[in-house]
Amino acid sequence: MSSPLASLALSLLPTLLVVLTCCWLTRRPEAQCRPWRRRLAILLITSLAGRYLVWRVLFGLNQQSPMALGLSWLLLACEGWLIFTGLLQIGLSFSGRRDHTAAAKAGEALLQQCPSPPTVDVLIPCCGEPLALLERTIIACCRLDYPAKTVWLLDDGPEYEGTDPQDDGSPRQRRALARSLGARYHRRQGRQHAKAGNLNAVLPHCRGELMAVFDADVVPQPHFLRRTVGLFLRETRLGFVQTPQSYMTPDPLMRNLAMEDWLLPDEESFYRWIEPVRDSVGAVVCAGTSFLMRRRALDQVGGFSTDSLSEDLATGIRLIALGWQGLFLPEKLSAGLAAPGVADFAQQRLRWCRGTLQTLRSPRGPLRIAGLSWLQRLAFLEGALHWFNAIPRLVLLVLPLSTGLLGILPINLNGASFLMVFLPYWLSLLMLVSWLNGESRSALLPELYSWLLTPVLAWAVVQTLLIPRWRPGFRVTSKTLHRARSRLAWGLVLPLLALFVLNGWNLLGLLSVLPPSPAMATMPLSNRRREIGLWGCSGAG
Q: What's this model's pTM, rounded to 2 decimal places?
C-alpha cells in the first residue's frame, strides 16, 4: 500500500470504528434497549467531544501572532460553549425517561369510582384571536367529557367592533359568543402583566379545585380531563400535569421547505425527549397551555408569576420549589395552530428567549430560589443556557471573515486532522442524537432553526441581560384558521444574507483588506479555500 493511501486509511480508522459502534448501539429503538446502551452512547459522545477539545487546545490554535492567538482562543471558547450546552442536554438523559401512561390509566379508573369528582375551571385566555377560532376552542372545552367543570373565556382583546368572523370582534361580541356556547365570560380592567395578569384576574371568581388552561387556538380532546384529573387523586402533592403541545398546521419553516410530510416540527423533540427527561429529575416545565394545575398549590405561590414574559415557566419552578410535584403525561390530548409566518415564528421564539432569561435573573428563579435540588437547578439552568448559544453562533458566522479582513486563519486544521478528530465526533452526534431522543429530531434540523434566528436571538439576549428593566410589549403570536400567505421576513433574512455573501467572497479570496499573515501568504489560493472549507464544515457541526 502506498504511503498516501496508508495515511488516508489510518486517518479514517477512528471514523470507521465510531460508525460501527454507533450502528451496533442503534440496532433497536432506544426505548426498547437496556439503560446501559443509552449510557454508553452518551459516554461515547462525551469522550469524542473531549478528545476534539483536547486536540483543539494542543494542536488547533494559531500561535503565529498575538492577534491570531486571541482569535483562536475566541473561536475555541465559542466551540467549547456550544459543545458544553449540547452535552448538558444529552447528559440529563443519562438516567432515562419516565412514562406516566399507566398511572394515568389507574387514575382514570379511580376517578370513575369517585362519588364527587374534583371541580375544574377551564380557562381560555384570549387576546385578539379571530371569533371563529375562539368559537372552535370554546365548543371543544364545553364538550370535555367531565361533569364538574366550568369553562371561562378570559378576554384581553381590543375594544373595537368587528363584523367579519375572521376578525377578533368586540368585547360585546366575544361575551355573546361565550354565553351562547355555555361558557362564562370575564374581562378585566387594564391589560397589565399580559397573559399572567389575565389569568390572575379571574382567580377570585373561580371555585374549582383544579384549573386547566388552553390557549385560544388549542382544541382539547374530549377525554383530556378524564386522563389527567385522576392523577391528582393518586398524588396529594401533585401540583400540575403538563401534556404535549401538538399542532394541526406545520410551522412556517417546515412548510416553506416542503418538509412537513416527512420531518417532525422542532417542538416535537421537546415533548418526546426533553420533557420526559426533565420529569425523571423532577424539573418538568409548565408550558403555558394544555396543562392542569391544583388551585391550592397555585394559591400558595401567589398566583401566576408576573416577573417575566414566561409566566408558565416561572410559576412551575415556584411550585416545585415549594415541594409540589410537576408531572409530564406523554399523551397528545390537544392540538393548536403553529405560527403562520416566519416573522410570527421568530417573534414567538424571541418572547420565549426573553421570558426564560428574565426568569433566570429573578430572585425566585432556578439559581436563587430555595427548595430545589442541584439536579433540578441544573435541568432548569440548561433550559436557559441554550438561548445563550446565539452569541457564539453569531461569532462563528463572523469570525471566518478574519481570513480576508485580517489575513488570519484562527484555527490550524488540515484534512488528516479533520478525518481523525472532528469527523468521528460529528458522526456520533449525527447517528446517536436522533436515536437518544426517540427519532423526534435529527442532529441537523435544529441547526436550521438555530442559525436562522441567530442574529435576532443574540440581540435579544444582550438586551435582556444588559437592560434588565427593559420590558418589550407583549405580543400574542398571530393565529388564523386559514393558511397565511408566505411573506419574506426581511428582518431575519438580511443579516444572514449579508454574512453569507461576505463569507462567499471570503472563500473565493475576493475579500482582502490587510495583507495575509506569512503562513497564509505562502499558501496557494486553492489550499486556502480548502482550509476555510474544512473550518466551515467543523463550525457547522
A: 0.86
